[in-house]
Amino acid sequence: MLFRSATELYPHLKDKPEEAKERLARLLISWSYWESAWDHKALGDGGKSCGIMQVNPRSIGMSCEEMRSSPRSGMIAGFKVIRHLNKICGGLKPALGAYGSGKCGGIKTIVEKRCKQSNGC
């Protein structure tokens, strides 16, 4: 499920699904480092966000316990949020800005830095 929809985030790679999967993997690995230092049991925002991708459980209908059960569960949660925001914000970079700030296109400098580091955007 996680990588099957990679071309949704990278429509320009529709004919190169393997490259889209690789980019998504790099993006999720990089983003999770900045969100939790790869601690899948992490709690943040005063306990409101959890898991390796620091997702608010209310946003996706998964429990904190579920997201913290494994790195994969947390990655799936983060991917679901990014995928949803991609549809709302009209692109990956604006979606990542919303992921970090709650506003499409927010935190542009951080998004650019993380995208450059991961070569995944």
Describe the structure in your own words:
By secondary structure, the chain is mostly helical. Helix content is 57%, strand content 3%. The chain has a two-stranded antiparallel ribbon with strand order 1-2. A hairpin with a 4-residue loop joins strand 1 and strand 2 (49-50). The two termini are 20 Å apart.
Summarize the helices and strands and which ones pair or pack.
Elements: H1 6-9, H2 17-36, E1 43-44, E2 49-50, H3 64-68, H4 71-89, H5 92-101, H6 108-118
Antiparallel strand pairs: 1-2
Helix pairs in contact: 2-6, 4-5, 5-6
pLDDT < 50 runs, ≥5 residues: none
Distance from first to last alpha carbon: 20 Å
Q: Give the helix proportion (percent range).
A: 55-70%
- Spatial extent as radius of gyration: 13 Å
Order of helices and strands: HHEEHHHH
Q: What is the tally of beta strands?
A: 2
Class computed from helices, strands and strand pairing: mainly alpha
- Which band does the percent of strand residues land in? under 5%
The main pleated sheet reads as:
2 strands, antiparallel
- Count of helical stretches: 6
Coarse morphology: globular
Strand order in space, largest sheet: 1-2
Average pLDDT: 93
